Write the structure tokens for this entry.
Amino acid sequence: MRPQLRFLDNDLIEKIVGEARVILKELGVTLHNDRVLSMLSDHGARIDKGTKQVYFTDSVIDSALSTVPNSFKLYDVLGNETHDFCSGKVHFTPGSAAINVLDFESGKARPPVTNDYVSYVKLVNQLEHIASQSTALIPSDVHQGMSDSYRLYLSLLLGEKPTVTGAFTIAGFDVMRDLQLAVRGDVDELRERPLTVFSCCPTAPLKWSDVTSQNAIDCAELSIPVELISMPLSGFVAPVTLVGTLIQHTAETLSGVVILQLANPGTPVLYGGSPAIFDVRYETTPMGAVETMMVDCAYAEIGRYLGMPTQAYIGLSDAKQLDAQAGLESSMGATLAALTGINNVSGPGMLDFESCTSLEKLVVDNEICGMTLRMLEGIHPKEDFPSISRFQELLSEKHLLISEHTRRYLREEHYFPGKAIDRAQRSRWLEEGGLTLGERANQEVRRLVKAYEPSRLQDSAKEELQNRMESEARRLGMDRLPETRIE
């Protein structure tokens, strides 16, 4: 039996979805992209051209829900399948788009540079329980106009895992499309074996910007999977109640589903988000709050009820350091996400309200992910019935350390974490240096970055990636790309 968790029953889900549909029909959403407005109008939505307000119909919502896939797959740069977003399968990916990196030596957050990103990709490529990359850091040493495409470039050049990413501009998407084509070769192969998921984020409350809506239909036209990241803030730009926040999240996400499916029926979608409560005491949006995690899990139940695979920003922390708070919030979120069956869990490595990434935390979070994945396997008998012979052996030998049964099932039954997690007795811990969690994690970061082996992507594809990125850099006035320690 697989352990499971639910916050909503089907009657409540139906009421939430029903209210969201009423909002879309009677209040609508504001949408600042004329091409998308025209497309929606062609399919029967009512458009107020003056206010750019879109009023949806039941038929257009139902049509979109009838074509959205209930699962899809992702592939690495070599074309191997890595993800199957079906049923309750759970995959972990680092949080995205941090503007700071936590420097272990100084203990301070600072803007990341290219070599921070290089170290990140080398590390993620070797973390067993992190299934994909994300464009986790925004390097500050390149032109702002290429900060979206440059991150994807480094990920595709150095790493093999698929990448969760997103474009900051309309022009940036074109470069990111071309980078993917450099890896896949042509559009048909990219459609057949997608290697990215793009985040598209409506703006709370009930708005779509020109850039985001254009990115959405650009992805749809190429069948690039999209995760819809609605971000209502309970008590600020969303109702203070969790149910009210879920109604808004559902309306905003359904509007995105309609846009994607009208642009290209069958476009792969992750029903996702990054909502939070609003802590009025500090004017912050705590991702580690239990209510934030509850909303994440609940909207994933709604997404699954509507027939879509799901995503959430959960399993991260608002702490500023790799400390007890970071472990508390991240492990609780990862556990709840796994029990809920969220298909793509975004968050490992992140601190400080989604603004900072720590490589040391990413190593620790990899262990949290491993533990939760082991938990999902559940408890199953393995030659345990009848049990009398096992206990006869135990009474005879006084232990079962070298029992055939132990040797057969030890590693299948017991999860053994890496060196970042301490399970030694105090005396041995002291003999080995008495290292803190952060120090052990830093040692693992250094070891894994040093052990990195270059991506097996064909040299011709790597050369084309570099040529395309250098061309974009020159267009923006940069003489050359930053020097990188790729060896």
Notes: The chain has a mean pLDDT of 97. The first strand starts at residue 29 and ends at 31.
